[in-house]
Structure formats: C-alpha cells, structure tokens
C-alpha cells in the first residue's frame, strides 16, 4: 500500500492532525511522478448527500473499521478512512429520484439508507444494492441496534431488528414499519393504543436493554417516551424540553444510554428514556453551567461509545465526559483549531477520539481525509484542567464484555475484583438496565492484600429473575412468560473523570432460553435389553407396518385407507423403551444441560404419536383431573389457524385447565385429559395391540423454561394377545346358552324323576339297562372262562 503523509500540524499535546492519502485500486488509473498514483475514477450512478447541515459519522460498534460519514458527500469505509474514497453513490437503476439521505443505519453486514423517503440496502460484503420490501408509505428515518457479544439468537435478533417511520407525523395516524430481517422486508407495526396518543412522532426504537419498544411523543415543546410492554405501558416517561429537531444516538452495548442533541441542546438518558436530563458543562475548576444553552455554545458534532461522550463545537472547542452509571459534566478542553463545516467526531478506542474532515482534490474525484487524533488521557493530565487523580488501581471481572443466559428458575453468580489506591476508599455500584426483569444481590468483602500492601476487595453478584427474588411488587415486574434482556454494569460511584482506562464492567444477560438445555426420555428397560428386538436388525434398514385401522395421517382419530410402512430411524431413536400394554404408563422425562443430567422434569408435557397412531388413551378425564375449565387437546390445537403444523402445542399456546383465569366452560367433562405431569397422576393406556410407537413429547408448562423443550422417542408395546378373527358374539352367546341349560337341567331333572311321568321315564330306561347289565355280565363270564381254559382247547 502506498501512503502519502503530509506534514502533521500540532494542535496541542495529545492532538495531531494528519492527512492521509491512499489511492484506491481501479481498473483505469494512471501514474504521475510527484504524487503516489494518479487515479482515473468516475462516480457511477447518483451521488448521495445528507440532508442535514451538520456532519454525522456512524461507526459500526462491532466491526471497528466499518464507518459511514454523512455530509455534503457521503463516504463509506471498510478500513476506518485509511484510504482515499469516492463519494458514495447509488446505481441509477434504483431510480431513487432526488438522492437525498435523511437517515442511515448499519445493521450487521448491511447499510440501510433512507433516500427520498424510501429505504435502500447496500450489502457491502456482496457489493450489491436492493430496495426494501413491504413499505407502502413515505418514511424519513430508520432505527436499530447491533449486538457484538455472540451468535446467540437473542443477540442475532437485536442486530436484525429495524424500525422505519416518518419523523414529525401525527402519532395517532402515522404508519410505522418493523423488520426482523435487517431491513430487507418490513411489515406494519401496531403500537397499542396508538390511536389514543396525542402529538407528533419523534422516533420509535427497540430498547433491548429494557425489552421494550419506546415511542417518542412530541407535543407543545415537550417530549416523553411511551412503552409497549408491562409494566411500563400503563404510563409515560418523565417529560423533557424538546427544542429544535433532536438527533437521537443509542450508545453501543445495550446499556440503555441515549444521547439527544441539537445545536443548542444536549440531553442524556441512562434508563432508555424514562428520565431525560440536560448535560452540565464545566469550564474550568469553578465554572459550571446547567446546560449547553446556558454555556452559550453551539454543537457541531457528537460522538459516543459505551463509556464516553465527546462534543465538537463551532467555537472550535472539544468537550468530553464519562458515561458512567452516575451523571458527570462535560469538561472543556483548551481551544484548538479543529472545527470546520465538514468535520465530524468519532471514537477509535476507549479514550481515543478523532476529528475527521474530508478534503477534496482539485484533480481527482477521490477525497482525502484529514484525521486529528486526540488522546483523552494525555489531555486530562494537563495541570490547567485540575483533574483529580484516579482513586482506583484496578477494576476487573471475568464477565466483562460477555453474554450470559438465565433461564426460568435459574441464577447466575458473577465476581469482580476492586483495588483502590493506597489511602483511598471506593464505592462500587452495581446496576441492571432492566430491573423489572432481572434482580440482583451483591456482597463485598476484603480478600487479602497486594504486594504493595493495598487491600483487595472482592464483589460477589447474584442474579435471578426479579419475579423469583420475591421482593418486588407484581405491578413492578415484567411478565414472567415473556423472554427479556438486561445488561449489568459494575462501576465505581466516586470515580474521577481521569479514570479513562478504568472502564465499567458490563455484561449482557438474556433472560430467556438456555440453548444448552435439552430433554431426554429415560430408557432403563429397552426392547433390545429383553431380547424382543435385535439392535443389529433395527440398524439394518428395519421397517414395520402400521395397520390402516390403527392410524390416521391427519391426526383426527379416523381410520386410514391403506397400511403404512415405516422405516425405523435407529440413529435418532435408538432401541425402543419396553412397555406392557395392560399397565398404565408415563414416560420419565429428564433435563440435561451440556451433557450433564440436571433433574427429572415434573412439569406438564404432552405426547403425540408422530405417524398418527390412535390406539392409546389416557387414564384421566377432564372431570377426574379436577379441571376448572375445558382442557385443551390435540384436536383443538390443530384446529387453531394460528398454530402451524400438527406438533404446534408448546409453552406459548398452552393454557392450563386448572388456571383460575381460564374462563372456558367445562362442557365435556368426560373427554380424555391429554396432559401428563404437573399436578395430576395422568397416564397413557394402550389398546390391545403390540408394536412400535414413535412419540413426540413437548414441555408445555410456561413456567418451567423459556425453551421449546421437545424431542421424539420410541416405545415397544408387548403382551397383548392377538384379537380373535371370530366375532365375540358368535362364541359368547352359545356358551351362555349352554351354561344356562346346564344349570336348568341340574335343577329340573331330579325334580322330574319324582313325578308319575318321571317314574315311567325311569322305568322305561331301567329295563334296557338290566338287559345291558346281563349282557355285560355274560360277556364278562365268557371272558373268565376263556382266560382259565388251556391254550390248546
């Protein structure tokens, strides 16, 4: 890479303006002596420009080299402005009309631009442009956030969420759009009670630190936030003065810090807009102004990261303050020749600020960039500022800049180490951004000494759902059924502004599904263990037949038209669990996490045979299960148009029939109760049929876990005698007749023999019997004679 560096111009200690010139590689370029390379580039398409007179600079919080400069020209860089750039243009094929940009947002790997009241997407990795789909009304702004912690679904959802809206439109009739696909596809967003709201729309944002959608309402010079979810949806945030058109900057890290700024106004909120207050300005050790307007300064550019705020004014001054847990004032640095109409601020690292100014070239269309880096820590060491020395030597925790998950009924333990300077005392302060969802308890104690004799302080932090701490009013806690998020921040309350490198410790907490959890069905006695099935045979393309009388492919309990041949999936199901058909049975469901057994699940769950077998029922009915309301079943779940697929019964649509808030009347008390586990002893009863059943099982208890815990398993039912081919009535009726006849004869014959007819009947049979007796005696006598005669006679 060829770099041309012009002589730096010093502004003061810690600041140095450097102009970097690096030509970009092009297909057509020329070389000229005396300058690095003469490049022949042309802007293709419509050159974009920003609607505001003040320059803005948007940095990607996760990818440090990605940034967007918004001014009279727009520049997009992938190397942090280390090379000369052509102004950004949009292909003429997009037919944008007036190429004016009113808002921009970097969503993960795409750049969203609002051009002429429509949204266009630039995928800078694929170098392709697209128009967003689904927006039917004019929009002026987009808002979103980026999560840099991990590839967890909670984090991915943050980066994918984007709002589009028309700033200044009447809130009661405006059209707001939401996208969960990084802006590629939008759909209308319905805000509860929107028609009742009064005022104009100042913005709509997804505050992931609070798990709320916030709407900024402007009315008669005052503004306030409304929120979408319990418990904040019943009221508004505190109102604040709204002067001019405030730009709203959401600081990185999901900490809930918002920056509101205009030329004569600078406001900050540390709790997602619930409380907004002006930033104080400190000029010298004894001068403190309550606001920007009182200090009579005009803001030109603002930059912020997770921990710091910097302001560049038209009076050629740079201001700086810390964004810690507690409020702090802007400190004025001594006057510097930094300002120009095209200058913009950006943080390159903690304590490192750059003033960036595009410089046109009289020969080439590519712009150079003048960069003035400022080392905040070095500037704060100036004795004229009279900044106190940092009281802390160390603030350390392994949880810093990490993401954790707290599932329902779970907790998280975090530790941190704090070491003050000799003779100093520190006040640690732990705060969560969403106290409605996440509760904490902290304990601090001395944990030995350093080699220099300083006391080490250990801080143990316990985190649980606020609902499970049992210390908050139900009207304060968020709905326990809804997954939420929060950040936890550990800072030092009495920390000086000079503690630039001693940044707060922050972690993102997802109060939701723990992806490491899964359920396993206990299988202590299998059909292979008892020799009924051969595991080798099951793996060798084993298949079995389900009779058409026993299954329904539509899961409605109706007989099919033909038999079903099923290929057994041994790799997924293993050897089937062995179940005797005449014994009520319930599977034992186990919870596992990261390959380790956790517990036997006693929560409510449901079963469904995946091939439609209906030759089983349940031991309890709705009445015997003591249901207060009509219980759900698989039929009602499948008939609901909002549920997709036959296996849609889960924690989100389950309603317990024992819930006192369930007002569905108990109209059919004798229907089978199809929920297992929980407060009942319900079990499965199989019909007289041997064979393999493959069951889908789903945990439906909404208070057990935020995960959709589900799996499939197989059982082999044995011990049932084959059903008789002859109908039961053909054998039972003759048998009953014969039994009754025998009983009647045993009673009637002895009684008949004592009557006249009985005596004649008896006499009739006596004479033949006597003849038979004589014949038998004669026969027996001849036999004796023959036996006693000699063999020759």
Beginning-to-end CA distance, first to last residue: 141 Å
Which structural category do the helix and sheet elements fall into?
mainly beta
Stretches where pLDDT is under 50 for at least 5 consecutive residues are 1-35, 785-793
**Cα radius of gyration in angstroms:** 41 Å
Mean pLDDT: 88
Give a quick account of the main beta sheet: strands, pairing sense, barrel closure.
Answer: 6 strands, antiparallel
Count of DSSP H/I helices: 9
Helix content: 10-25%
Q: Give a count of the beta strands, DSSP E runs of length 2 or more.
A: 56
How would you sum up the global shape?
Answer: elongated
Beta-strand portion reads 35-45%
- The quaternary state of the protein chains shown equals single chain
């Amino acid at each position: 890479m060829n770099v041309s560096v012009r002589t730096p111009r010093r502004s003061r200690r810690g600041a140095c303006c450097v102009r970097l010139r690096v030509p970009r590689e092009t297909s057509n370029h020329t070389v000229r002596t005396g300058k690095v390379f003469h490049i022949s580039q042309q802007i293709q398409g419509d050159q974009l420009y920003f609607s505001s007179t003040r320059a803005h600079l948007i940095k990607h919080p996760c990818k440090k080299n990605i940034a967007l400069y918004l001014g009279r020209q727009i520049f997009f860089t992938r190397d942090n402005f280390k090379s000369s750039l052509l102004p950004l243009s949009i292909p003429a094929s997009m037919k944008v009309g007036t190429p004016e940009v009113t808002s921009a947002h970097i969503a993960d790997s795409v750049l969203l631009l609002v051009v002429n009241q429509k949204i266009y997407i630039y995928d800078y990795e694929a170098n392709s442009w697209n128009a967003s789909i689904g927006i039917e009304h004019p929009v002026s702004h987009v808002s979103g956030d980026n999560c840099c912690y991990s590839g967890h679904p909670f984090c991915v959802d943050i980066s994918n969420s984007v709002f589009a809206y028309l700033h200044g439109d009447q809130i009661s009739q405006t059209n707001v759009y939401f996208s969960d696909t990084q802006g590629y596809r939008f759909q209308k967003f319905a805000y509860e009670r929107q028609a009742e709201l009064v005022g104009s729309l100042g913005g709509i944002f997804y505050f992931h630190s609070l798990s709320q959608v916030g709407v900024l309402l402007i009315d008669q010079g005052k503004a306030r936030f409304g929120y979408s979810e319990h418990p904040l949806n019943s009221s508004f945030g505190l109102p604040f003065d709204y002067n001019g058109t405030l730009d709203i900057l959401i600081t990185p890290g999901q900490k809930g810090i918002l920056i509101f700024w205009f030329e004569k106004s600078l406001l900050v909120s540390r709790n997602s807009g619930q409380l907004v207050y002006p930033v104080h300005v400190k000029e010298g050790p004894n001068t403190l102004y309550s606001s920007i307007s009182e200090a009579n300064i005009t803001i030109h550019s603002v930059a912020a990261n997770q921990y710091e705020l910097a302001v560049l004014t038209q009076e050629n001054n740079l201001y700086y303050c810390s964004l810690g847990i507690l409020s702090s004032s802007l400190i004025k640095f001594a006057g510097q020749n930094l300002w120009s109409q095209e200058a913009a601020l950006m943080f390159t690292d903690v304590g490192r600020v750059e003033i960036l100014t595009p410089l046109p070239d009289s020969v080439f269309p590519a712009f150079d960039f003048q960069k003035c880096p400022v080392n905040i820590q070095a500037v704060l060491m100036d004795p004229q500022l009279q900044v106190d020395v940092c009281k802390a030597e160390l603030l350390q925790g392994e949880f810093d800049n990490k993401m954790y998950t707290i599932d329902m009924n779970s907790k998280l333990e975090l530790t941190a180490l704090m070491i003050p300077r000799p003779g100093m005392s520190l006040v640690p302060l732990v705060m969560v951004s969403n106290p409605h969802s996440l509760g904490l308890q902290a304990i601090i104690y001395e944990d030995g000494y350093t080699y220099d004799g300083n006391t080490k302080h250990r801080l143990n932090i316990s985190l649980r759902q606020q609902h499970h701490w049992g210390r908050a009013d139900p009207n304060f806690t968020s709905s326990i059924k809804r997954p939420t998020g929060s950040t936890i921040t550990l800072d030092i309350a009495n920390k000086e502004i000079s503690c630039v490198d001693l940044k707060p410790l922050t972690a993102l907490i997802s109060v939701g599904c723990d992806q490491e959890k899964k359920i396993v069905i206990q299988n202590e006695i299998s059909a292979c263990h008892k020799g009924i099935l051969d595991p080798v045979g099951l793996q060798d393309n084993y298949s079995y037949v389900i009779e058409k009388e026993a299954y329904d492919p539509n899961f409605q309990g109706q007989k099919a038209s033909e038999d079903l041949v099923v290929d057994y999936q041994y790799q997924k199901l293993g050897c089937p669990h062995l179940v005797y058909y005449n014994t009520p049975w319930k599977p034992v469901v186990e919870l596992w996490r990261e390959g380790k057994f956790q517990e036997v699940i006693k929560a409510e769950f449901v079963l469904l045979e995946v091939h439609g077998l209906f030759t089983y029922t349940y031991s309890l009915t709705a009445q015997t299960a003591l249901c207060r309301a009509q219980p759900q079943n698989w039929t009602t779940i499948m008939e609901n148009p909002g549920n997709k697929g036959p296996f849609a019964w889960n924690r989100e649509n389950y309603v317990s029939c024992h819930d006192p808030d369930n007002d569905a009347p108990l109209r059919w008390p004798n229907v089978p109760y199809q929920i297992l586990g929980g407060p009942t002893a319900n079990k499965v009863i199989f019909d007289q049929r041997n064979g393999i059943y493959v069951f889908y099982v789903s945990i439906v208890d909404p208070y057990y876990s935020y995960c959709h815990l589900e799996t499939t398993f197989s059982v082999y039912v044995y011990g049932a005698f084959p059903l008789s081919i002859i109908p039961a009535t053909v054998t039972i009726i003759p048998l009953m007749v014969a039994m009754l006849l025998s009983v009647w004869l045993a009673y009637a014959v002895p009684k008949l023999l004592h009557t006249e007819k009985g005596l004649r009947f008896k006499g009739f049979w006596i004479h033949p019997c006597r003849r038979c007796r004589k014949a038998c005696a004669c026969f027996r006598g001849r036999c004796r004679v023959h036996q006693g005669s000699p063999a020759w006679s």
